Amino acid sequence: MTHTDPEAPVLPRREGRAGHLLLNRPRAINALTHEMVHRLDETLRAWAEDPAVATVLLTGAGERGLCAGGDIRAVRESALRGGAEAAAFWRDEYRLNALIARYPKPYVAFMDGIVMGGGVGLSAHGSLRIVTERSKVAMPETGIGFAPDVGGTYLLARAPGELGTHLALTGTAVGAADARLCGLADHFVPAERLDDLAGDLATTEAAEAVERHRQAPPEGVLDRQREWIDHCYAAPTVEQILDRLHAVGSPEAKETAELLFGKSPTSLKVTLEAVRRARTAPTLEDALAQEYRVSCAMLHSPDLVEGVRAQVVDKDRRPRWSPATLDEVGAADVAGFFEDLGADELTF
């Protein structure tokens, strides 16, 4: 399963008892393409059956991060053409997320640097999720007119209190301690020790190797903010969440309200509904199927095309959302994003 082309976007290799998967698009912070999804899926399925592979390790090339997410430029271009390519990409990507979650061997992800969106899907469903002092973990979709996917709603719905709702709506990036608090990571290992840990995985059982290198992470921030976060985000609607954020009297809460005002009103309302529905999803696969409905509907919403334009294409950071206000997004509008896709439903 080793691809010999050094320019390939995924480089699988074997070292001792470990199979290494290197995401290899460093200039794009290893943003995920459909080809990469295919290569990862193919390799993981082969290694699951290979008795010589005891552990799988996922890393990213370059110094900036594991994976900045899906290739949202390609998603935007697909949306402008009707969306068929993006829908096919998500179908395969979400099935890959489910495969990682139920992988029969230890799956170790080095969540070093930027780990966002699709990068969370490749790592946070693994069995041994390693964060470092450089980790920045986020689901930032509301800022581009989209909604958390790749099983992100399932993970965030299971974070303590309303922390997951806060991260889903704001897209805030968290460090090592807060990623662990929210259930997105397991262990902290200093970045300078990752190479040593990777070396040990070639000869040692995965949990034992990680135990050898893990340390206590630097202090996080979310624990100190739990009181206002849990109070504000327990409100039933986005409008009431904003009212509580303004009323609570905390500078951090007020800053959060200002942050939310810049997000897509449609995305905020759909995301809140998606996370709350995901709380009762029996399995990750159920949540992924729900996310697939939402993602496909987002392809036909003006905000996804506009959000990616503003953040990534033109980079003017001035999206013109449509509808422009929360009041204009009604309950029926939100419900439309969750409608059954019939023959196009995501299955596993």
From TrEMBL:
The keyword Protease belongs to this UniProt entry's keyword annotation: no
Recorded catalytic activity of this chain's protein: 3-hydroxy-2-methylpropanoyl-CoA + H2O = 3-hydroxy-2-methylpropanoate + CoA + H(+)
Organism: Streptomyces physcomitrii
UniProt enzyme class: hydrolase
The name this protein goes by in its record: 3-hydroxyisobutyryl-CoA hydrolase
InterPro entries reported for this sequence: ClpP/crotonase-like_dom_sf (IPR029045), ECH_dom (IPR045004), HIBYL-CoA-H (IPR032259)
Tree of life domain: Bacteria
Ranges of residues in domain Enoyl-CoA hydratase/isomerase: 19-338
EC number in record: 3.1.2.4
Transmembrane regions listed in the UniProt entry: none
Entry keyword set: Hydrolase
SUPFAM superfamilies for the chain: ClpP/crotonase (SSF52096)
Gene3D superfamilies: 2-enoyl-CoA Hydratase, Chain A, domain 1
Annotated PANTHER family: 3-HYDROXYISOBUTYRYL-COA HYDROLASE, MITOCHONDRIAL, 3-HYDROXYISOBUTYRYL-COA HYDROLASE-RELATED
Matching Pfam families: ECH_2
Coiled-coil ranges (or none): none
